[in-house]
Specification:
2 domains, globular, 9 helices, 276 residues, Rossmann fold, two-stranded antiparallel sheet, 10 strands, 8-stranded mixed beta sheet, alpha/beta
Length: 276
């Protein structure tokens, strides 16, 4: 069963979709809030996320998907969103799933920047019972610089030349202007807040179970050092921290194929969640 609705955060409305377990199949009292990735990665991974929410609901979990302010069907303009507003939206979603269900525990699930935001929320004392982090972005500043490269690609395709360099874009962002990336306006505030986020340099306090998943194209894939270091930090706080390497294609940026499910990721994550 799926219930779509709007819920208020401060002065604006967020769009949400609550996936409820079938009562005849049983409910386990566990809720999960999904923290989506950024911009085009959210669009490309949308079908996977929807089907993952349905998969979890089929296994007894109550799941809330939602759009951040300025994205999807939520109120606001994309350029008005930043790291702080997204964290506020996640916290509001956590309260909303508790209000709209009878769950006893709730966890955060995030993909890419959504996983990073989940970590930031927990260090800001959101107090979820567990986290699942698919391919978290450790150094957000480097990630945003990579995003700016797509603007260069668009320029080459359109004008056969680079008329607006990445250095010029960064200078404009640091000077208070917005920059277009794949049709999304990145604000100066978002860029500056994101550039200050480096999970590798943070001290963690979250001591509940954490599953960190590195998604690899190959069976012999190895987690990047930056992600392995995040796992090490959590493992010192909690014996239930885990690092998994799961073989899947990077569906959040692979535009050559249409993905409906992640056949390895889904059951691997469910195995972690079944302990609650």
């Amino acid at each position: 069963m799926e219930d779509c609705f709007f819920f208020k955060n401060s002065t604006y409305n967020l769009f949400g979709c609550l996936h409820k377990p079938n009562k005849s199949d049983g409910q386990n009292g566990i809720g999960i809030v999904i923290c989506s990735p950024f911009a085009e990665e959210k669009l490309r991974s949308h079908r996977i996320i929807v089907n993952f929410a349905r998969y979890l609901a089929d296994n007894g979990f109550t799941v809330l998907r939602f759009d951040y302010m300025g994205h999807g069907d939520s109120d606001g303009d994309f350029e008005d969103g930043n790291i702080e507003t997204r964290m506020s939206d996640i916290k509001c979603a956590m309260n909303t799933i508790k209000e709209k269900s009878t769950i006893q525990k709730v966890g955060l699930f995030g993909l890419r920047l959504g996983a990073t935001l989940a970590v930031l929320c927990e260090e800001d004392r959101v107090s979820s019972n567990f986290m699942v982090l698919w391919e978290p972005i450790v150094q957000v500043g480097n990630y945003l610089k990579q995003c700016l490269r797509s603007n260069l690609t668009t320029q080459m395709a359109t004008y056969k030349a680079i008329n607006y360099t990445r250095e010029q874009m960064i200078n404009d962002l640091l000077s208070g202007h917005s920059v277009n990336v794949d049709g999304y306006l990145i604000s100066s505030k978002f860029y500056q807040q994101g550039s200050s986020v480096d999970l590798g340099k943070m001290s963690f306090t979250y001591s509940n179970p954490v599953s960190i998943v590195h998604i690899s194209k190959s069976d012999t894939g190895k987690a990047p050092k930056s992600i392995a270091e995040i796992y090490q930090k959590y493992s010192l706080l909690n014996s239930n921290a885990e690092l998994k390497i799961v073989k899947e294609r990077p569906f959040w940026n692979d535009v050559k194929a249409y993905y409906q499910t992640a056949e390895s990721l889904f059951p691997s994550t469910l195995a972690f969640l079944k302990q609650f």
